[in-house]
Design brief:
Elements: E1 4-10, H1 14-24, E2 32-39, H2 46-52, E3 57-63, H3 68-78, E4 83-86, E5 91-92, H4 97-105, E6 111-113, E7 116-117, H5 124-134, E8 159-162, H6 163-168, H7 179-188, E9 195-196, E10 202-204, H8 210-230, H9 241-258, H10 265-282, H11 285-315, H12 320-323
Parallel strand pairs: 1-2, 1-4, 2-3, 6-9, 7-10
Antiparallel strand pairs: 4-8, 5-10, 6-8
Helix pairs in contact: 1-2, 5-11, 8-11, 9-11, 10-11
Length: 335
Amino acid sequence: MELISLIIPVYNRPEEIEELLATLVLQTRRDFEVVIVEDGSTVDSGEVVERYRDRLDINYHVQANGGPAAARNTGARIARGDFLVIMDSDCLVPPEYFETVYRHLGEGVRFFGGPDSAAPDFSPMQKAVSYSMTSLFTTGGIRGSRKGLESFSPRSFNLGIEKELFFSVGGFTDMRIGEDIDFSKKVIGTGVKAVFLPDAVVCHKRRTSMRLFFKQVFIFGVARINLNIRHPRSRKAVYYLPMLFTLGSVALVICAAVWSWWLMLPFVFLMLLWFTDSAARNRSLRIGWLSIWTSFIQLYGYGTGFLYGIWMRYLRGMSEPETWKVTRFFSQKTR
């Protein structure tokens, strides 16, 4: 049986690493290696790692800051395992995760991605952000549901791949944001199928403020334009919906101000839909209320980022690195 190496890049987040490692010691199957790559942190996770060395097989590596893509490539190079699982440092791993993954590897899976969800003890804000990132009524369900998937691309918060296959495509590129989707497209381009494993779930701790969440989805919108240029065949109608929603909202508000505020009723119906759906899922009226605003942020943040990307790449003819300048306010610490 193949050995799995779990690769985790980290930057200034020792508290998150401790929470993640605490979930790993509870796994029902423990034959896996943990590779933590400290990517130029000023506050490292060394002390945390030492507290878990007697309970987990940990390989802790420190390098100069190069970004999460470079850290993942380093982790792949030093990993002992034949199969790599990549996660973000802000994930928590349910006890059956590795038992589930090993079972699917026995079925011949070479490249997979799994969904993310909110853990029961996440804050109301984290659960609301999780809803807006995974709901059919906000993102089309492309992140967390087989039904919503048109063409599945595993993301770096929960991605697994054969080590040999990882290196055959050259690992992650130097793309600043969206590098995980870029990587997935390269792998899929070789003819290997990306398998969605609905039972290989991780709990992803989302942004804990509206401001940080807006920054995140704005950058995702910019990255989608860069991905469309790198991978023209990956363009899907669902990626344009936030932009259309943003432009449509502006037009609707203008029309309502000129003619009648009754034209704002579509917003009321949409807010009721988000509230009802999220409140029912989370069994919380408070989370339902917060989900209204996180859903607006999801759509407007992504939509404005998408428009910015169009302006920079298509209208001004700027290069991909030029679009990164606006990401400077989105520090690596908030990734």
